[in-house]
Amino acid sequence: MPSAERRYRATALDRVFADTRIVTAVGPVRGLDIERTRRTLAAAERVDDAPHVALEPRSDARQWHYRNGIAGDNVISSTAATEDLGRVLTDIRARGGERGPLEVIVFDDYLAVDYSHGIGDGQIGVMMLAAFCDDADGALVPGLAAGIPAGMTWKALWRHYSRNPRTLGAFWKLRARHRAQADADTPRRRIDNWEDSKVSRAGYMDRARVDELKRWTAENTPGATSAAISIALVSAALRAESIDVDERIMVLFNNRRYLDPAQQGSHGNFAVGIPLRIPAATSPHEIAGIMREVIESGWPIAILGMSQLRDATSRIRSSGRQQHADSVTEVSDTLRLAVSDLGKLRIFDHLEWADDAGPPQVAASLEPDGPDGCTMLIAEVAGGRTYTASFCSEMVGVAVMDAALRRICEDPVALLRDAH
Which of 46, 69, 275, 296 is the most buried (most CB within 10 A)? Predict the structure, then answer.
């Protein structure tokens, strides 16, 4: 139920994502309790007069309401099987009926959150998972209410470029270097009702393989970051399965790095994806260098600034994501890959894992923006890594994606060695 008194001024990015869903899941966790989850969500609503977790996103409005009573029948229990996390995410996304801005599903020893991307990016999704599982000491609840204050984009831009004025020129040069080039010869394909074919698949890399990968990359590609290694692994695995992958890979950057540290824990849509030219032979070390150039140039925060300037002079339009029953989409036969590495998530360290029910995992599904898109989200908890691919099964077969995930998780060192 919306409140008539409180309003939030949505950014351009908020509205773009208002009709997009993020689905996250964590487990296996001992002692999950649906009533405790409801109490945690209700407590987050009471923390502040404008709790960010209570937003009601709308793609067709600049002013958004804050809802009241957000811990009701949107928190439900489920007895569905959880052995296959990819299927769990797919089934949650495919549920019928109208969706609320935030829904929580509590399984026996897994917990999932299905929320509008308009509320925020992956940072709030991860915090909700950790808090809704168990926030006995109340340490996480205040964070769920903390939204990014108005005007932070401009403060971040000033903070970066006033300290590093020469990087403005680097930004324009990098933007030109990574710009898309027209290719009229690229094969095309037609896909019917592609949104009905959206699926998620998950692969798990155990601690021993993660440790082996870290040792090998430290010795052979020094300076490579976790995100750079993930991009190299994912693109190599897909190409090894004969998938034509666009060399411009969308890399997710968290713009909170440009904020004052006191504001970096606040929530909203402050991460952006930038398509970067990363040819097949590019090593993890070289990918890390490309990403470092982008970060130092301020390109990610400049994107937010430019989007706000465009938004100030434009009319509001609905996102138009609804698909007609007989829709046909024509796209390139080349897969557009987007990669987001969430890194090592210590926010789950307080949970008691049900080790007899499988390895601790965090999986996350972000909808691709078209049938030719594939998003890959990577998260590390308790020493292991989970790779979650979300894609259109009419573009890439499920068996093919499963094979690519096995390549990544079963022998990542061999995959990188053979590719580079």
Answer: 275
Q: Which two tokens stand for residue 366?
A: 């972000």
Alpha carbon of 319 to those of 56, 90, 102, 149, 322: distances in Å? Answer: 15, 22, 19, 24, 8
Which residues on adjacent β-strands are paired with residue 77? Answer: 106
β pairing state of 373-381 and 336-344: parallel
The predicted-structure confidence for 293-342, as pLDDT tens digits, reads as follows 999 999 999 999 999 888 877 766 555 555 555 688 888 889 999 999 99
Predicted pLDDT of residue 71: 93
Place of tokens 């890979």: 249
Q: Give the per-residue pLDDT at 394.
A: 93
Closest CA to 24 of 343, 361, 266: 361
**Strand 21-27 with 361-366, pairing:** antiparallel
- Which residues partner with 297 through β-bridges? none
**Single pTM value for the model:** 0.94
User: Rounded to whole angstroms, how far apart are CA atoms 173 and 182?
Assistant: 19
Distances (CA, A) of 202 to 25, 339, 385: 11, 14, 10
Query: pLDDT at position 351, please?
Result: 95
Query: Cβ(93)–Cβ(22) under 8 Å?
Result: no
Return d(Cα 366, Cα 374) in angstroms, integer.
9
Q: How far apart (Å, rounded) are the C-alpha atoms in residues 225 and 419?
A: 18
Helices (H), 147-297: 152-163, 167-177, 207-220, 226-240, 284-297
Which pLDDT score, from 0 to 100, does residue 3 have?
46
**Packing angle between helix 284-297 and helix 299-312, nearest 10 degrees?**
50
Distance CA 399, CA 211 (A): 27
Structure-block tokens of residue 37 = 């989850």
* In contact, 333 and 243? CB cutoff 8 Å: no
DSSP code for 393: T
Residue 365 CB neighbour total at 10 angstroms: 29
CB–CB of 130/140 below 8 Å? yes
Strand partners, 192: 328
CA proximity to 118, closest of 73, 54, 200: 54
